[in-house]
Amino acid sequence: MTENKCEVCKNPAKQFCSSCRSVFYCSRECQKEDWKTHKGRCKPYVVQVHPVYGRHMVASRDIRAGEIILKEQPVVIGPKQRSVPLCLGCHKAVDGSTRCSKCHFPICAPSCEISKYHKAECKVLAGATAKIKIDNVESVHPAYECITPLRCLLTKETETKKWEALSNLQDNVANIVDTEVGHVIQRNVVEFLRNYINYTASESAEIYRVCGILVTNSFELRHNDQKIRGVFPQAAMMAHDCCPNTKHAFDRDLNIIVRSTVPIRKGSPIATTYTNTLWNTLQRRKQLQTVKFFLCSCRRCSDPRELGTDLSTLLCNECGGHVLSLDPLDMNATWSCQKCNNTIPGRNVFWGDQQLYKELRSFDQSSAKPLEDFLDHYQKALHPKHRFFIEAKYALIKFYGNHPSYRYRDMTREQLEKKVKYCRELLEVAEVIDPGLSLLRGTVFFELQAGLVALARMLLSNEILTKEGTQDYMTEAVKHLQEASEILKHEPEMENGGLETKLKLLSQELDV
Q1: Residue 496 and residue 15: Cα distance in Å, rounded?
Q2: Residue 251 CB neighbours (<10 A)
Q3: Which DSSP symbol is given to 245?
Q4: Residue 85: which residues within 8 A CB-CB, separation 6 or more?
Q5: Residue 510 has what pLDDT?
Q6: What does the pLDDT read at residue 424?
Q7: pLDDT at residue number 17
Q8: Coil, strand, or helix at residue 382?
Q9: Per DSSP, what are the bridge partners of residue 225?
Q10: Count of H helices and E strands in the chain?
């Protein structure tokens, strides 16, 4: 048996770093002495190379559910690829009334001209052949596509460690160059910077490569209520899985915080999802192919029933049986009824999927009725747990009780019972595709407990149940509230009293 030696004095050692468990110490004194050196490499994971995912994180020890795996500052943040005009000094919304005196981009206040985000790029943008014309601040403007790539390029001279971290990331240029995304990059970033802004410090190939790095590795986050993107080189090493074992959030300082949602065994990949866990296989794989340039073949994607969740399952128009893809890893594969063998060409299923996607997103968001009508209209075509039904039900459980037109005290028994029913269905799905301490489960538990309390009070006030009869509702609600609180307590918006405030408002609404 190999004897472990102290990292500092090399004497026999039995104590180890409780975080990474990779180094040993003979005493607390030696551990304290080594901390300045060790803290930079103390992490519960290593980066390995995978034939499909490339470099990716693997647990170097067993990781507990809820444990912080990584906290990292961004090396760069800035506007998304398709961004509406926003302040380049602080990323707040702009109204167009104030502009930078040098580069003429809209800002929210004169003080933002010298912001740490904008100061360096302003000198470059001011070299444009003509003033930037941004008249409509509510529509996507192509000029903003060059901002974040430019911020990356400017670190080359001023912040070399950041530039090195960016340069080491995968760029996927070979996969991007002949795509629609690639053509947009060439036109709106490379040619815009070189020809319109007169930026000559980087060659076209280097600008293009930085854009590839951003496309491949960026995370979307919010800053001052606006959606932007940021690069976190270590977090970018997480593998993709359609059933992730982590969640991430961003604190007030825009650090990314990655937590495990379930226990992760030593040697297992540490995975996030590059898509949306509630999407079905067709949409997830299409998104991954378009944006991340690979086709996922995980156990969920490989299963026609998506691990029993039926997020892709259709209903047969002949007999009502379940219609499944004969090969879910082939987007053109035929779909067949499991009961009568009626078939549907894959291209027809894909077309229908796209149409339903557009329909669901076209609804008036001030009323629950379009969502309710959607569920009624397609109940003979889609499985009750089909992706679009689950999305509609998820929207409804957040609508019922939270929207001014659907306060708990004004809702009908049918609406309250639907809320509880939909929450239970969503939890069944979440247990499979986003288990443990996921934000999805925390949100649904919170809505379920509120629905149960509201339903119990309504039944009691209408003398449908006695006070004793409501006890089962209340007992279950308390259990779910405890589960929700445990999951949500680490969410940035719930910390520092946020959860207590939300609970107080809910208590007032429910009069408990």
Answers
A1: 35
A2: 11
A3: S
A4: 94, 96, 105, 106, 134, 136, 137, 141, 144
A5: 64
A6: 97
A7: 80
A8: strand
A9: none
A10: 17, 16
Q: What is the pLDDT of residues 349-406, one digit of tens each?
A: 999 999 999 999 999 888 999 999 999 999 999 999 999 999 999 999 999 999 998 9
Cα separation, 207 vs 74, in Å, equals 20
| Of 343, 292, 293, nearest in space to 318 by CA | 343
Secondary structure letter of residue 238 according to DSSP: P
Residue 302 · residue 285 · CB < 8 Å = no
CB 136 within 8 A of CB 179: no
Cβ(223)–Cβ(253) below 8 Å: no
User: Cβ distance 336 to 323 under 8 Å?
Assistant: yes
Q: Judging by beta carbons within 10 Å of its beta carbon (0-12, 13-18, 19+), is residue 133 exposed, middle or buried?
A: exposed
Q: Where are the beta strands (DSSP E) in 164-250?
A: 219-223, 226-231, 239-240, 246-250
Phi then psi for residue 59, to 5 deg, are: -65, 130
Whole-prediction pTM: 0.88
Q: Strand 256-260 to strand 68-72: parallel, antiparallel, or no bridges (unpaired)?
A: antiparallel
Q: Which residues contact 32 (CB under 8 A, 6 or more apart)?
A: none
The whole-number average pLDDT for the span 186-199 is 95
Q: What is the pLDDT of residues 121-142, one digit of tens each?
A: 999 999 998 888 898 999 999 9
Which residue's entry shows tokens 């997103």?
361
